Amino acid sequence: MKRILITGASRGIGYELCKQLLKEEHQVVATYRSEKTAGPLFELEDRSKNLLCLSMDVNSSTSVQSAAEEISEKFPFLDQVFNNAGILDWSPLGQVSAESFLSIYETNVVGVFRVSVAVLPLLQKGHEPLIINLSSRLGSIELRGNSHLGGAIAYQCSKAALNMLTRQMSIDFAKEGIRAIAISPGWVRTDMGGREAKYEVSESVKLFLSQIAQLPSSANGIFMGEDGEIIPW
Ligand SMILES: NC(=O)c1ccc[n+]([C@@H]2O[C@H](COP(=O)([O-])OP(=O)(O)OC[C@H]3O[C@@H](n4cnc5c(N)ncnc54)[C@H](OP(=O)(O)O)[C@@H]3O)[C@@H](O)[C@H]2O)c1
Questions:
Q1: How many CA atoms lie within 13 A of 56 on its CB side?
Q2: 34: Cβ below 6 Å to ligand 1?
Q3: What band does 147 get if pLDDT is binned at 50, 70 and 90?
Q4: At what angle do helices 39-47 and 12-23 cross, to 10 degrees?
């Protein structure tokens, strides 16, 4: 049984991760930004003795700090953190606003930094501690121009920056015994991914959880797809 933190668990991939990890008998701290969208998560909490739901807006240092303190009062350590909370703007270069660009970085990059640093002391005490950052193939610089994917410039840049953050975490946190990886869940049918996406959310989460479970304990600083394939940075 692992102790696992998930950000952005009110819906989509975060909510499904929560469900599947609970089925595997892990203890889960699921965090949500808004009570308005977290109804299903609260219902799950009523039915699950292993689930703790906490409010956490990754854009706010105060909110992240207060959630981290509450977690440390209830959990002696964390083994895994899924930095899942994320936002997207499909506007291409030339149309995206600077405000939207900044707000995407605030959530997708700075938010991951805030949460990871805030829970570092708990991860240091965990068993084979691992940070899993939800990235995207849209963030691969090497795949640009070689695929039909693209158009969401601020999101693409934010995930490329997240990949760099992941790689740097994998180096800097290694001293503490903490590993960090970036995962692309594939194109998934959520509010973000839309109805045309390739995977049902349950399918994608099942796939990438099984890939994470099969990773050797030496795996660190990699960018991997839901299918276990290494994605070029
Ligand atoms: N779906 C795909 O095809 C796909 C592909 C590649 C990567 N990803 C990545 O996978 C992750 C999850 O995506 P998804 O498809 O599940 O998206 P989603 O359905 O739009 O859900 C996003 C989640 O993030 C939360 N969130 C947004 N801003 C937040 C903030 N400031 N603080 C805390 N939580 C916040 C949302 O909370 P609210 O309910 O309060 O808004 C929601 O729970 C994202 O990082 C995304 O970039 C998704």
A1: 32
A2: yes
A3: low
A4: 10
Residue 164: predicted pLDDT: 98
For 14-40, the pLDDT digits (tens) are 999 999 999 999 999 999 999 999 999
Catalytic residues: 136, 155, 159
Q: Is 38 exposed, middle or buried (0-12, 13-18, 19+ CB in 10 A)?
A: buried
- Domains of the chain from N-terminus onward: 3-225 (3.40.50.720)
**From 34, 87, 209, mutation site for ligand 1 pocket: most ligand atoms within 8 A of C-beta:** 87
What is the phi/psi pair of residue 99, to 5°?
-65, -45
SS (H, E, C) 153-214: HHHHHHHHHHHHHHHHHHHHHHHHCCEEEEEECCCECCCCCCCCCCECHHHHHHHHHHHHHH
Supply the residue whose CA is at minimum distance from atom 7 of ligand 1. Answer: 136
